[in-house]
Amino acid sequence: MKGKLTNKSVAALKPESRIYKVWDNELSGFFVRVMPSGTKTYAIHYRHNGQGRDHTLGRHGAITPTIARKMAVAKLGEVARGVDVQAERKQHSRIAKKAKYDTLGGFIEHRYAEWVTTERKSGKETLETLERDFEHLFGRKLEKITNWDVTKWRTDRLKGTTGKPLKESSINRRVSALKAVLSKAVEWEIIDANPIQQIKPLRTSEDKRVRYLTESEELRLREALDKRQSGIKSERVSANLWRGERNIVLLPDLEKRSFVDYLKPLCILAMNTGMRRGEIFQLEWGSVDFNLKQIKIKAASAKSGKSRDIPMNDEVLQTLLTWRNETDSESLVFPSPVTGKVLNNIKKSWKGLMLLSGIKEFRFHDLRHHFASRLVMAGVDLNTVRELLGHSSIDMTLRYAHLAPEHKAAAVALINREESWSR
C-alpha cells in the first residue's frame, strides 16, 4: 500500500489480523507499520551491504508524520554516507543496557538478584548480606572495586569501627559473598576479571572445638524441656478456669498430651539425627517411614543438594509416632503454630529453654555437633558420621566431630602397661 503519510491518513488506518505496511509516496523508504493490536510505528527501509533492513523511528502519537518524515530524511542521509543505522542503534542499546548494571548495585539488582534467589536456597540471605555490608560500594563500577576497598572494610569490622566487631570467620563469609557476585559478572562477560580475586581469607583461630553437651548438660536440657511442658500445662489449666467462670470457650486441654507444642519433639529429633535446622523445619510426614524406621532428607532441603536417609533410633521413632497423633498437620512435621507454613525460627522458645536449663553458650545448631560428637565418642567411623550428617567431604566431618579431651585421655589410658619399664 502507498499514500502520503499524514495525521489524517495514518489515523484512518485500521488494524488487521496480520502486520501490514503503508509506504509514503513522497519519500522513498519511509513507511508506517500497523500492528494487529492497533499500534502504529514509523520506520525506514534501507539496504546495507546488499541486505535489506528496517529501522524504527517512533510510535504514532508520540511523534507526528511530519516529525517522522524529518527523522527519516536524516537517517536515510546517514545511510547514503555508508552508516548502518540499525546496527548503530543496537550498539547504543547494548551500551545503554550495560551501563544499567555496570555498577555493583545495578548488577545485583538487574542481573544477580534473580539468579541467586532462583539457584541458591540462601539467595535471599545473600542479598541481605550484600546490602547490609557492602552498600557503600553499590555505586562503584564493578571493575573499580579494589583490594583496598575490601581490606579497609575488613579492618574496620575487626576493630568494630563501623559496627559491631566481627569474627574472622564471619568476615570471610561476607567477603566470599562479594567475590561470588564479581565472579558471576566475569562469567556473564560484564567485566574481564574479578578485581578482588587475589584477596585471601583471614586466618581463623586454630581452636575449633565444637560445642556439645556434657552428660550433666544433656540431663539439664531434658529436665528443662519437661519443666517447660509442665509450666505450659499449668498455665492452660489456670486459663481455662478463668474462661469457665466467664462462660468463654475453653482452650484445648493439654493434660493428656505428651507434647504441648513442637519444641520438645523437635529437640529430640535434632539430638538423635543431627539434622540441620532447615531440614527439620521443611521435613514432611511423607519423608518419615515408620516401617523402615528412617527419615529421608530431600535434596531440595539439604545444604549439599543431595538426598540422604537417616535411621531413627527408638527415641526418635516413639517421639514422632506420638507427635503424629497429636498434630493436625498432614504435610509438615513441625508447621508454624502461627501461619501453619514452614517455621521461620525458634529463637524465642530456644532462648527461654536455655534460661530454664542454665546452659551457657549453646545454640540450637550445636545439637548437630552434639549428635556427631556422641557418635565419634561411641567409636563410629568418621565416614559413617559424614554420611549421616550429609557432609560433602571428610574434612567437614573432622571439623564438626571433635572428641572431648577427657575422652581422648581415656582412650590413651587404655594402652597403659602394668609391667614396669625397668624389667
Explained architecture:
This protein is α+β, with helices and mostly antiparallel strands and 423 residues long. The protein has 3 domains: 2-99, 2-Layer Sandwich (Double Stranded RNA Binding Domain), CATH 3.30.160; 101-187; 215-410, Intergrase catalytic core (hpI Integrase, Chain A), CATH 1.10.443.10. It is built from 16 helices and 8 strands. It has helices at residues 7-11, 65-80, 85-100, 104-119, 123-134, 147-159, 168-187, 215-245, 263-273, 277-281, 314-326, 347-357, 366-377, 382-389, 394-400, 405-413; strands spanning 2-3, 20-24, 30-34, 40-48, 51-59, 288-289, 294-297, 308-311. The strands form 2 sheets. Strands 1-2-3-4-5 form a 5-stranded mixed β-sheet, covered by helices on one side. A 3-stranded antiparallel β-sheet has the order 6-7-8, with no helix packed on it.
Q: Tell me the helix content.
A: 40-55%
* Number of discrete domains: 3
CATH class of the largest domain: Mainly Alpha
Number of helices: 16
Largest beta sheet: strand ordering: 1-2-3-4-5
Could you give me the name of the CATH homologous superfamily of the largest domain? Intergrase catalytic core
SS-derived structural category: alpha+beta
Terminal CA distance reads 118 Å
Mean pLDDT: 88
* Low-pLDDT residue intervals, each spanning 5 or more residues: none
Q: β content, as a range? A: 5-15%
CATH architectural group of the largest domain:
Orthogonal Bundle
Give a short account of the largest sheet.
5 strands, mixed
Order of helices and strands: EHEEEEHHHHHHHHHEEEHHHHHH
Looking at the structure, the CATH topology of the largest domain is: hpI Integrase, Chain A
Shape: elongated
